[in-house]
């Protein structure tokens, strides 16, 4: 079997040093659509170095996206066909606010291998810490078609019941035609997001937007509205990738404010006391689902 679950779970963690600076943060923010209108004070928090705040989803590209999903596919015990691989979900836990500039150690390992019958799911966990202690923990769920069925643990379900009632807030965010080209400069060079011929080979009518770009756009929408623009209020963020997005389309982002399920504290001692449930769809394609089972835990 191409995936040896026992070997993957027993493998030694991989450690590497990552660095980032204000230009990396600014480029990421521009890649997820920040800076419109360019002189808006709320947008300058994302684009002007003298006022810069770091959106927590920047963690997914810090150090040019290393180690990332592809690194998970090169771990011991994992030998799969890239054509069968999907980025199934992403979750992020913040231990404290991200600094504008930093040097940190990223330690990555396969934290779980689940047998979903017709597919396998690998959980690639990365813990990042700097000289002052833990910064964030990042889980990427890697869905590998055709690699299940060995009788292993099915793992927890990521599905949640839909929020009750109408959303508290609905916003729309239009994706620029060149947005995937800009976002990929933060480290994801997969030609699926730029090369029409490669996209066609993958079964798409044209290049698609990075799922993690939609992930960042969605978090920014939640922070800018229900969290008052305060990036430090985010404690955790999780989603399941449910469909593709094409540059030029418009995202419809629905938000429900909840009381939160489960409380926790960070290294700063602040208690998470709520969550926002989110559903994201493609307005141009009859509200086709894009992100599902999405939650933002906050202070």
Task: Describe the protein's architecture and organization.
It is a single chain. The protein has 299 residues and is α+β, with helices and mostly antiparallel strands. It has a single domain (5-298), classed as Roll (Thiol Ester Dehydrase, Chain A), CATH 3.10.129.10. 18% of the residues lie in helices and 33% in strands. It is built from 7 helices and 10 strands. The protein has helices at residues 5-10, 22-31, 41-47, 68-72, 179-183, 196-201, 211-225; strands at 14-20, 85-94, 102-115, 119-130, 133-145, 169-174, 234-241, 250-258, 274-282, 288-298. The chain has a 10-stranded antiparallel beta sheet. Mean pLDDT is 92; it is low at 260-267.
